[in-house]
Amino acid sequence: MATPLPRDPIADARLNWERHGWSDVAAPMAAITAIMRTQQILLARIEGILKPFGLTFARYELLALLSFARSGALPMNKASALLQVHPTSVTNAVDRLQGAGLVIRSPHPTDGRTTLIELTQEGRTLAKRATAALNSEVFAQSGFAEQDVDQLIRILGTFRRNAGDFSE
Amino acid sequence: MATPLPRDPIADARLNWERHGWSDVAAPMAAITAIMRTQQILLARIEGILKPFGLTFARYELLALLSFARSGALPMNKASALLQVHPTSVTNAVDRLQGAGLVIRSPHPTDGRTTLIELTQEGRTLAKRATAALNSEVFAQSGFAEQDVDQLIRILGTFRRNAGDFSE
DNA sequence: TCCAAACCCTTGGATGTCCTAGTATATTGC
DNA sequence: GCAATATACTAGGACATCCAAGGGTTTGGA
Fold first, then answer.
1. N or C: less crowded end of chain B, CB within 10 Å?
2. Are the CB atoms for A63 and A97 separated by under 8 Å?
3. Does pLDDT of A164 surpass 70?
């Protein structure tokens, strides 16, 4: 890890905003910038843990999603919707997972347009091991206080609902 | 925007975690996943606003940083440290900004290793206009309640400090 | 019935991020 | 003073994301 900066760059940005007369939006700017940076930190941690398994976060997410599907298989478009990424991102991830022998593409029984992604036994085993590693190395040491975790889930859940992620 | 899902996929993931006996880390997993998704939503909004200016978020951040520097110029390594991205990412952004005539590379007066990035007049003007657009179209309508913005700044600030971003 | 519209997946291209390695310049230590 | 180490930037490569466009399959309305 690099040497810590002497000052918080996001707090400084907020001061700059206020100095320029944008005080009304300085706080949301700081919050949004902090989310961007936090995501970057967390992603780096996660990828660091997954690397020994030959996985990236994108591929892990797909593997995990499949492992929770009753049949161990999902249509690509369904995976795209649930992971909330562009269909081409799923195509990309499946290409690599299939190349590694972790998933298989198979035709949908009734809809010729649709392709099913199916976990192989190897894929299921790797998903299990990778999840165990993430649980113990990242999620169990998230760096968030317990009440803060609840706050985050509440705040970001409201945000995501308002952004149109889900209706529920 | 795509049709909202009937259910929150992150809440479902949390339930899956609990069902598999990982209740102790289910909440942090959900919080971290929510951060990833929120970042994705915010980034898409920001890039949508910046697109008409011919800017991406990475390039905008660099322009904004320079516009707050007293001299309008910064060494590349300083920009890299303040933006907390890899030096090669700064090289990439500077290449494109320079190609668009928004910044200029100039040699450091005393250290031959260092390259200074300097805003052009055009760059300064564009930074101002882009900031105004982001302020009114994104930050002023962040979708977070005012108290939640404060909570986010507090929670993520603590997290970033613990992660080694800054010492202060 | 049949064709247009809708839907699903893939290909190709643009960007951004990181890592590794290489070149050039400074600084340190003997 | 000079060699070894550290620092600064860039080139090349691997991945991920999105968008635009294309080809195949289904669906729905005339």
1. N
2. yes
3. yes
